[in-house]
User: Fold these one by one.
Assistant:
Number 1:
Amino acid sequence: GDEFALIFTDAGESKHIAQLAQKVLSQFEAPVMIEGREVFSGASIGIAFYPSDTDNAEALLKFADSAMYHAKELGRNNYQFYSHEMTASANQRLQMETDLRRAINRNEFVLHYQPLVDARTNQPTGMEALIRWRDPSGQLIPPLQFIPLAEDTGLIVPIGKWVLETACAQLRQWHDAGHPALTLSVNVATRQLRDETFVETVRQAIQTSGIPHRSLELEITESILLENSEDTLGTLNALKQLGVTLAIDDFGTGYSSLSYLKRFPIDRVKIDRSFVRDLASDSDDLAIVRAIIALAHAMQLTVIAEIRICCRGSPICRPSR
């Protein structure tokens, strides 16, 4: 994203700065109309004080930057004041970025595969590729610890390319081993979708592996659909022309606007596990999931639910008729 610096002189107490920061954030709450379309945006704000934090201009910007990244780590769309502990955090971030760059060249990434199971037959119909990072000590680093950094630095583009190529090659092996109906699902980050070479990257991965185009599914988040929507629409249409399928990941956790289901060429919605895990005991979750399924089916979309343990006690897990 873009970065801007705001300088306030004689701002007074920190509570006054907090009020100013909140006013800035409030400006991003409403969508912006661009060529008749609603576009949503957000902001993360880092705050540093002169001279209490530092009397050096370069360090002041660095400290504000550290606070901004801390705001991002806390979920974005908030503000954070700099603290000296953040310097250590910033150094750790810099070290992880260095390690992440080396990991690409050292082939330290591995893919795990999660089965996608048909609720009616209880048979696997596909696999979802999940990236993990095995550091030199052999420890597996979960994606939540490095994917956000990879997106911020742009490293997600070469990492995502490796994931696509590796996963497609694995799918070809499964097809050749006698499982030609298996499909493959791969997560796509916002930064990847914005990359001008992404469609060609997908094309090359399919062509090199020799898998059928329709057997590859790309998962995107709801937030991607509301950022640079016209550019996103063009990219998704180009991907559809390749013959791949498109799914919305973590459906129901993003923005409330559902207009993108009509505008974008989506094939499937993936209900977030936060709605599924308590289906057997939470009537509200059950109602939400039923509504999502009904909406998806009415729009000729298929549905998948994120679960780790089958919710056999819930009526939602029973085949629909």
Number 2:
Amino acid sequence: MKRRIRILLIEALVIVLAVSCLGGVVLCENALRLPANHRPSPPAGFGAPVEIQAADGIPLKASWFPPKDPGAPVVILLHGVGDSRRSFGGIVAMFQRNGFGALAPDSRGHGLSGGDQFTFGLKEVGDLNRWCDWVEKSSPGSRLYGLGESMGSGILLQAAGPGTRFRAVVAESPFATFWMVANHRVGQLVGYAATPFVAGAFVYARLRYGLNFREASPLKQVSKPGVPILLIHGTKDENIPIEHTRFLASANPGRIQVWEVPGGDHVDAIARAPVEFEKRVIGFLHAN
């Protein structure tokens, strides 16, 4: 009887591992790519088109809105998953009327930029550093700032550690670590069974693509000394819960300011409270 129970337990474990591995493969492949028909172009006349190359050779494209006055500050804008630079029309206008220039890139695997895969910061931080190089050459003397949304905010925070070129950064609806947000998102579909699927996906990504998603961690960088950070998060965000921002803020309260938007959803602060958004963001950047 005991032997039969042991055999059943081993069989159950093998089934769980097999399902986790298969689920992890499917999860990983779907999480790293967008459908080909879901990569919109920017609207006509949306800034000056610019292009650079990433370290792995893929083309990275952006829209450039130079500052009106030479040497005026410039902000780099980073969008979320499934989005593109075209989503920043209102924010670009806000920065322009306050004397800022702006650069709005399409992240790799999005919009008109190359690549069929995105990596939640593992490669995008290097891409962002190349955009910083481009801005410094194109607008010498400009103070450099960053604003990111969702995945873009996670990328920005991963680039905001010691040695960053940014004077200050604003991150709306950021994730604390990719492990945490992946478990949350998968958990919305399968409940407590999420962790084995996510673990399988992480192992597959490491073996198949050499991507260690444990290192996709804004928390790791914000815990270190660095530039001032403003975190913005809606209290009703179900995509990336506000607990991620609270966790980040608790890691380095002397460096981080937080604006919790009452009733706010995912990256909707400017739509919900446009006047306050402009006042807080512009005021924060001018102060730094």
